[in-house]
Amino acid sequence: RGCGLYNEIARLIVLVFIPSTLILIFGYGTIRNVKKSRRKNSRSQGNIIHRIDQHLTQMVIGQIILIMISCIPNTIQCIYLVLTLDIEKSPLRLRIEILSGEATLVLTTFQSSLSFYIYAKTGGTLFRQTLKELFTR
Q1: Rounded to 5 degrees, what angle do the CA atoms 104, 106, 112 make?
Q2: How is 36-72 classified by DSSP, letter by letter?
Q3: Confidence (pTM)
Q4: Low-confidence residues of the chain: pLDDT under 50
Q5: What sign does the dihedral 79-82-85-87 (CA atoms) show?
């Protein structure tokens, strides 16, 4: 029981907190570099870079929220299963736990494909134009 609880907490750290922290660090570094390049460019290019900066911020925040929304429910459900391991459960309760486990697992697996849609939606016209050029080649 203790090992299972430890494993689930470690999984939460590895799958949620470490990726979120890395995305935040590298996203902040990217945004900082965009701001530095904005200072070097003229005003007309500064407006474009400001929009890119906003899109990058939205993408980073969206990615972190997506990671948390998709991974935390499954981890909580697994911790619940570990904590209630010694409790005798009715067949209905077992089926409900299995269903909730499968639902949270599906949510976790959608994370990688949903990242693409977040980038496509919040990435602005520059991302969509680049994506369109990539597919039309």
Answers
A1: 115
A2: HHHHHS-HHHHHHHHHHHHHHHHHHHHHHHHHHHHHH
A3: 0.63
A4: none
A5: negative
